[in-house]
Amino acid sequence: MKRLFLYSLFLLSALVALSQKPQQNGISFPKPIDLQIVQDQDDMTWCDYHPIPGKNWADPLLVPERKFRMALVAVDFPDQPFVITLPKHSDLFGNPQIDPVKRDDVAKFYSDFWLRPSAFNHGQTINGYWMEQSRGNFGITVLDTYGPYRMPKNLWEYGLNEYGQNNSTPSGTRANSRMEPDVDALWNAAEGEIKSQYDAILRIYAGYDETGVWQEFGEMKFLTKEEIPADWGNPDTLKPRWIPTRYVPWTSWKAGQMQWGLSSVRQGENSGTITHELGHYAFDIGDNNNNPYIQPYRRVGSGPWDMMDRGSFNGPGGPHMRWVIPAAMGASMPAGLMLRNRIINGFIAENQVLTLSREELAGRGPVVAKITARAAEPFPGTFAGIIVRLDGPEPRDRTPADDPSVNPLSPGIPNFDFYSVEVVQRIGYDSFCPDNGVLIAKNKDRESRNGGPNGYNCFNWVIDAHPEDINKVDYFKPDGTPVMRTIADYRQLNDALFHAGLNSGSQFEWTDIPNRLHFYIIDLVKNPEGILIYIVGVRSLDGTITGNKKLTIKAPSVKKMKSSSGCLSFTVKNIGESDSSEAAINDIYRVSAKIEGAAWDIRLLNTLFSPDPGKHEKIDVYLNHDIKSSRSAVITLTLQSESNLLNKVVYVYKIRAGTFHN
């Protein structure tokens, strides 16, 4: 009986062991070296903020080179008090989110909110944003407060002068008033003519920016315009409770009566886009965004990756959380500026960017360089980004024109001037970007519209590593029906970044055949502080490295695998002469590996390789086998030059299986 029990116990143990064994031969292979992990804006919280190691650009003690002085003028209306003065969660929109502030203290509250780190703004300020983007070159040093003043007209008399809303007034008269003249008249009457003492005026008005409420308190809240209740409608109960708005035929009257923010830096209490408006006002950069709601749909230009596009909406909770007061959710943490805009603004030194010529690339062969994440200062031996000018005979941009009315992914008129390559890491203000990785884009020197139906001003065109529909819900209607994001929604570019290595879930290369360029994401490293540095390459499809630049390969010392899986490191030396420049003319190789032997498996984590001239570098090959495998196997490692078909190295290596033990 005892013997039978022990035998049964042995069988049970064997069955358990078999059930726990991986289905794949041996032990699973390592994870990809650069797995793409896209986090949607809707799912972000303040826990997603990660400071730049060793740097707090919002520190008021830091003094910028260019000091920008602003005045904050606060105004309310006979029909609209400051939301921030009301009891918590008491207004129709569910605001404010904090205990009330006295009316006399409103101007100071908002000045501190935008300029001084605090619990209310989670330590983030408009000064901190511009200091981070400019590396201390540009900052808001003064935000003097004035008011509050009571405006001579109701809010709707200013807010209903936009987008076909003029005739939706309670009084029946057309609303044609601009807010700024009346604000400035009140300010001048109280303080005299002091406007000239400031570089810009921030006019904070009681109530909301329509951009942050038209959808949330329109089609997202009410199934049809006929279902809008009286408290959301026109005070004149004989008139419709809905009103036209900028992008769609209707929203609630209460939401539509609000003003739309402008580059005059006129902002409602919920506005998180002050940094964006300053981009217009202080640096004369235009919008780079589309209308995502109108057909035929047109893809967005730069989406979540640049503050001058919908990256201005980045922040906890995503774009549908831009209605909260104070504005500490969506739009509170705009994306950084893309390379093109930082160069135009003078935020990057010339020697921090590697500028290449398409024509020169055709004659010199591939160029390989290291790029530091854009939120950090480039480390020695690295760059802030790469520019490849589309020079040569006209047309410079040789992309075939297509019809945007048929192809929503068309960039429109092919008149771009250069490519840019930069690295995004989710630190600093880029914390609320949806991914880490390499950002490739086409850019224009001068702004222009992209033509075709529903065209728009477009000077950055991000290359999308995933051009297919992202297939995500935008919002749910009041009856629970999901509304998907249109192909023109800026969040379609959430997964646009390129990644290094195989099986990342993204792409590691981009080829522009008409413009004769090939871009490569070769590898990545992190410095000791965790800052991402990518190794990228670019070559002309017309460029060839002449001659046979030989590589030497040294086999690993291991001849026998002592366990069922392992890694073999082949040492490769580029015997060409070393190049002292930071961006070496360096060949790029495509690596492949195969194995001959029963029940053996082989994997590479990266198929791109670019050894520096004169240096030794490693190629790791991962193997596994099981108890049924042949006792030996033959590995064939092939390195094929991307720029010279004759430059090919094949190395054969024999490996034997040892005993199965750890």
Structure description:
This protein is α+β, with helices and mostly antiparallel strands. It has three domains: 63-284, no CATH class; 340-540, no CATH class; 551-657, Sandwich (Immunoglobulin-like). It contains nine helices and 27 strands. Strand 16 and strand 17 (532-540) form a beta hairpin. The longest helix is centred in the first third of the chain and has 19 residues, at 2-20. Mean pLDDT is 91; it is low at 1-26.
Output mean pLDDT. Answer: 91
What share of residues is helical? 10-25%
Helix/strand structural class: alpha+beta
Number of helices: 9
**Could you give the order of strands across the largest sheet?**
7-9-10-11-12
The fraction of residues assigned to DSSP E strands is 15-25%
Key attributes of the depicted protein:
662 residues, alpha+beta, 5-stranded mixed beta sheet, 5-stranded antiparallel beta sheet
Task: Please specify the SSE layout and strand pairing.
Layout: H1 2-20, E1 66-76, H2 106-115, H3 126-134, E2 138-150, H4 155-159, H5 179-191, E3 200-205, E4 242-243, E5 251-252, H6 253-256, E6 266-268, H7 274-283, H8 339-344, E7 353-357, H9 358-364, E8 367-372, E9 385-389, E10 418-424, E11 437-443, E12 460-462, E13 473-476, E14 482-484, E15 509-512, E16 517-526, E17 532-540, E18 551-554, E19 560-561, E20 565-574, E21 584-585, E22 589-596, E23 600-603, E24 608-609, E25 616-625, E26 632-641, E27 648-657
Parallel strand pairs: 1-2, 1-3, 3-6, 7-9, 19-27
Antiparallel strand pairs: 4-5, 8-17, 8-21, 9-10, 10-11, 11-12, 13-14, 15-16, 16-17, 18-20, 20-25, 22-24, 22-26, 23-25, 26-27
